[in-house]
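Methods — Computational structure assignment.
A single polypeptide chain was analysed. Its primary sequence is given first, followed by the predicted tertiary structure written as structure tokens.
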Amino acid sequence: MYFLKSISDEVHLSQKTFSNYKKVRKLLIVSIFACIAAILQTAGGLLPGIGYFISPLATAPILLCSMFSIRFGVMSYFLTIMLLFILQPTELIIFPFTTGLLGLGLGAAFSIFRMRISMIASGAIALMLGVMILLYIFHFPVLGPVASDSFSLLTTGGIALFAFLYSWLWVEVALIIFKRIKIMIIV
């Protein structure tokens, strides 16, 4: 079955190779991924319109870095947050709870789980929790005028469905990107 298929064998082999690198090379890779994530995330504020289609791509560098190593994925996540504090502080509320959290959740899932459904579910839970924290605890209108900041089962169900589908999309995109980028990083 499609969702029960094991897909993380290549990731585990690449993690073993990545762990043999010197610390300087690992830190260089982390910093490059963090810079790319910060630039992509700031596109939403710098380029109104088209930037809103570019900023979700900030998930990819965090996700890829987390696929190589959870520890270095967390490091790139926090480094990206620090870079956003300098480049565009308005993105500090969005990135840690949505884009970055999804990347961390999926990257960790690739390291921990083997089946596609568990990876998708992990990413969906991370994204759903992040959006719900922004919406219901901080009362930040992350969904715009579509949803109010008062709790609703309909809104929560919609967030859960969107998070699952979006996480599924990112699992498939991550597999494609990972196969292409591992050739450059794992040499």
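Note: The domain at 9-181 is CATH 1.10.1760 (Arp2/3 complex 21 kDa subunit ARPC3).
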